[in-house]
């Protein structure tokens, strides 16, 4: 039985557990940080994917980016909230594809110390988001 379980876990891919595009915050490049934060709160998730009109992933913006920007930026908080999210988002983001094994994706998340990974196709079109909690639960079951 144990051998069957471990083979199944090795067969799990990101597509099996990723969140669909309607289950996490997706924003356009020129949306205000305040609106982005509202979206993040609406979904109770610490990341927003920044896309263009063709749903191509351009950047990611997460809770840590907020912290780093507030510390390094010398503007007032009220001014920060009306900045475009793209100006403070990470353009050199990490990602996985739908066919990445779940084990490899979770290992990457651990190495990077992150909770979420965008899922894109070969053209950088956003397909979903891998969130650590459902990924771990799938591997444990």
Residues in helices, as a percent range: 25-40%
Largest sheet: 3 strands, mixed
How many distinct helices? Answer: 6
Enter the CATH topology name. CBS-domain
Count up the domains: 1
Number of strands: 5
pLDDT below 50 for ≥5 consecutive residues: which ranges? 1-7
CATH class: Alpha Beta
Structural class: alpha+beta
Radius of gyration: 16 Å
Neighbour order of strands in the largest sheet:
1-2-3
What is the residue-averaged pLDDT?
Answer: 90
Topology:
Layout: H1 2-11, E1 26-28, H2 33-43, E2 47-51, E3 57-62, H3 63-72, H4 77-81, H5 102-112, E4 116-120, E5 126-131, H6 132-140
Parallel strand pairs: 1-2
Antiparallel strand pairs: 2-3, 4-5
Helix pairs in contact: 5-6
What does this protein look like?
The protein is of the alpha+beta class. It has one domain: CBS-domain (Roll), CATH 3.10.580.10. It is 40% helix and 18% strand. The chain contains 6 helices and 5 strands. It has helices spanning 2-11, 33-43, 63-72, 77-81, 102-112, 132-140, and strands spanning 26-28, 47-51, 57-62, 116-120, 126-131. The strands form 2 sheets. The chain has a 3-stranded mixed beta sheet. Strands 4-5 form a two-stranded antiparallel ribbon. Helix 5 crosses helix 6. The model is unreliable at 1-7 (pLDDT under 50).
Jot down its keywords.
141 residues, alpha+beta, CBS-domain, 6 helices, 5 strands, disordered N terminus
